[in-house]
Write a structure and sequence with these properties.
heterodimer, A: mainly alpha, 3 helical TM bundles of succinate and fumarate reductases, 5 helices, about 60% helix, B: mainly alpha, 4 helices, transmembrane helix (chain B), membrane (chain B)
Chain lengths: ~150, ~120
């Protein structure tokens, strides 16, 4: 006697870690999701180092020594990159928060031809994330490059 | 605690960070915009002057736990998405993250409070 197989067919996770980065033909939002993770990890990796460095403020000699160390080579540029990542993460985070609670989502509708792409309803928010990030990072870059290194 | 509650805390911590990290970034990276001299913003007198103010004490004491929770919970979610992480390993990862987060919280809070008290 033959029984039906009740277990659903599963597929091997053949993309593995690459699946985090590769979104195939999904929209730009899928790649912003990856970028959100990359920038979040970057800021998180920086946090313990930042805590150790800033805790040196308790005495002047220690502070001046550590500030001398972090001003060397590419470290100030690396710190600026953390700023860029943090700004993007924040603006994209606002978009994700609003989407998560349904504020930027399209209303459910019958699929009547010609079909509309629901994701396009919140595409303006994606562009706004880029604009806001560019404005804040642009000002920060001006201060970093012109004012601080004048 | 339920996963949905932890996720809600993650979102709340993110919302809190938008405000307090905004203050931190404003002072450190957009200082000219707020009338602070960028050239001296990292000098010892400027840093210890800010540390002694009640406003910055509150900002940093809110920022520290919010940043640690938001960051470490985000990392935990990312690790847990890997299909080969089993239940036992998940528990150990959570414990390690709670322990390291608590350690950094105590260390950071000590520096903030000691900086305020001078």
């Amino acid at each position: 006697m033959k029984f039906f197989q009740l277990e659903p067919k599963t597929h091997a996770n053949y993309l593995g870690v690459k699946g985090w980065a590769y979104g195939g033909r999904y929209g730009i939002e899928r790649y912003l999701y990856t970028l959100q993770r990359v920038t979040g990890l970057g800021v998180l990796l920086y946090l313990p180092m930042h805590l150790i460095v800033t805790s040196q403020k308790l005495n002047q000699a220690g502070w001046e020594q550590v500030m001398g160390l972090v001003a060397r080579g590419l470290l100030p540029f690396g710190e600026f990159l953390v700023f860029v990542g943090g700004v993007f993460h924040a603006f994209n985070g606002i978009r994700l928060l609003l989407t998560h609670f349904g504020f930027l989502m399209a209303q459910p509708a019958r699929p009547i031809y010609p079909f509309t792409v629901a994701a396009l309803k919140q595409r303006w928010a994606v562009y706004l994330v880029f604009v806001m990030t560019t404005v804040v990072v642009g000002y920060g870059a001006w201060e970093f490059l012109i004012v601080a290194h004048h | 605690m339920r996963e949905s509650t932890l996720w809600l805390f993650h979102l709340l911590a993110g919302a809190v960070l938008l405000t307090v990290l905004g203050v931190h970034y404003g002072v450190m990276h957009l200082s000219n915009l707020f009338g602070i001299d960028h050239a001296t913003v990292l000098s010892f007198s400027s840093v210890s002057g800010r540390s002694g103010r009640f406003f910055y004490l509150v900002v940093y004491l809110v920022l520290l736990p919010a940043a640690l929770y938001h960051g470490l919970y985000g990392l935990r979610s990312l690790i847990f998405e890997l299909s080969f992480i089993g239940l036992v390993l998940r528990r150990w990862i959570s414990r390690i993250l709670i322990l390291s987060g608590s350690g950094f919280l105590i260390y950071g809070a000590y520096a903030i409070i000691a900086g305020f008290l001078g």
